[in-house]
From TrEMBL:
GO terms for molecular function: ATP binding; ATP hydrolysis activity. This is ABC-F family ATP-binding cassette domain-containing protein. Keywords: ATP-binding, Nucleotide-binding, Repeat. InterPro entries: AAA+_ATPase, ABC_transporter-like_ATP-bd, ABC_transporter-like_CS, ABCF, P-loop_NTPase. Residues 255-269 have a biased composition (Basic and acidic residues). Residues 4-234 form the ABC transporter domain. Pfam families: ABC_tran. Residues 247-269 are annotated as: Disordered. It comes from Qipengyuania atrilutea.
Length: 378
């Protein structure tokens, strides 16, 4: 059975920052979602699996064929949908044979079902387009769907998908979920799309501490994660309580011994005790103090060790804050005025229709398609 085994995998950035540390994972022919905060190595893991990056330690063993679908499908001017299927040469031969210009050997090599199978694959993702359609005429979402159809068309053992629904509308996201639901190979999916993650057979969470596998989809992962987090927090609270108690006990023992020593010194100062007895009491006090100090130190060290272990199991996430300086613009100042704007991708339906918008003063708005229009990339 095809599988991917990751053993003690390590990867660091060129400046030495550790991204993945001693990662152990096993992937079978199931749909696995990869989740985690930004910077925990999700996309890095996929690039390591494809061989685009080399690990700085550990190993990866792949039994089977893999295909990778990235967040953004990069294109050149002469590429068409057929290139996503690896079918440019095959379709050219087929058309040559249909035109009567092929040799007998070429006719024998032609795959007469190729075009129909590509059309069927494209229809499954909602793209009823000819295979020779230039990729430049497709929107980003359409290119993503075409690339996904092409990856599945090749019948690889594993599909590696990096945010496959990022540029898709609701219909496109549903098409991706439907395709993965019917996929019988393995799929490793990096995504923030909770509806897509709900369809997974397992979730792998990458953190700054480890990689952990949870059976089931997104809801099952959240439920298990909540139980696990509550247990870890209870363990940490107990460890903190024991560490504080050990510190108090050590302090109390020291203060008690100090009081005993003070009474002994006062009694010796009165001169009513033989010197030999005073010397014995002094040695016994010193021995008692040393033994108590060693016991207190051992208890304190044990409590601190338990506390350190408990803290290591909980990921500490620094809060993210972004401070934007004031623009200093008066509230009445018109910064941008748009009137009845239409915009979209070449050959596609408009993404923005009849838009009128006025920005005044220090207002801040984030709309990606609109931003692309304003800087001239759409």
């Amino acid at each position: 059975m095809p599988s991917i085994t990751v053993s003690q995998l390590n990867r660091s950035t060129p400046d030495g920052r550790a991204v993945l540390v001693n990662l152990d994972l096993l992937f079978h022919c199931e749909r696995t979602g990869i989740v985690g905060r930004n910077g925990t190595g999700k996309s890095t893991l996929l690039r390591l699996l494809t061989g685009e990056l080399a690990p700085t330690g550990g190993s990866i063993a792949i039994d089977g064929k893999i295909a990778m679908l990235r967040q953004t499908v990069q294109i050149s001017a002469d590429e068409s949908i057929a290139d996503l299927f690896g079918a440019r040469a095959g379709l050219a031969l087929l058309h040559k044979a249909e035109g009567g210009a092929a040799t007998l050997d070429e006719i024998g090599e032609a795959d007469w079902t190729l075009e129909a199978r590509i059309d069927e694959a494209l229809a499954h993702v909602g793209l009823p387009l000819p295979a020779d359609t230039p990729l430049a005429r497709l929107s980003g979402g359409q290119r993503t769907r075409a690339a996904l159809a092409g990856a599945m068309f090749a019948a690889h053992d594993f599909l590696l998908l990096d945010e496959p629904t990022n540029n898709l509308d609701r219909a496109g996201r549903q098409a991706v979920r439907d395709l993965l639901a019917g996929w019988r190979g393995g799929a490793i999916v990096v995504s923030h799309d909770r509806e897509l993650l709900e369809e997974m057979d397992a979730i792998v969470e990458l953190t700054s501490r480890r990689g952990a596998r949870y059976g089931g989809g997104w809801s099952a992962y959240l439920a298990r994660k909540a139980i696990e987090q509550a247990a870890l927090e209870a363990q940490l609270a107990g460890a903190e309580k024991r560490a504080a108690a050990a510190q108090r006990q050590a302090q109390a023992a020291t203060e008690k011994q100090d009081r005993r020593d003070s009474r002994g010194r006062a009694k010796a100062a009165r001169g009513d005790m033989p010197k030999i007895l005073i010397g014995g009491l002094k040695r016994r006090a010193e021995e008692t103090r040393a033994a108590g100090s060693r016991l207190a130190e051992r208890q304190r060290a044990e409590a601190e060790e338990l506390l350190s272990v408990a803290r290591a199991k909980i990921e500490v996430v620094a809060p993210l804050s972004v401070g934007l300086p004031s623009t200093g613009l008066p509230a009445s100042r018109i910064v941008l005025a748009l009137h009845h704007i239409y915009a979209g991708y070449e050959g596609g339906q408009p993404v923005i229709e009849n838009l009128s918008l006025t920005l005044t003063g220090p207002e801040r708005v984030a709309i990606t398609p609109l931003f692309c229009l304003l800087i001239g990339t759409t």
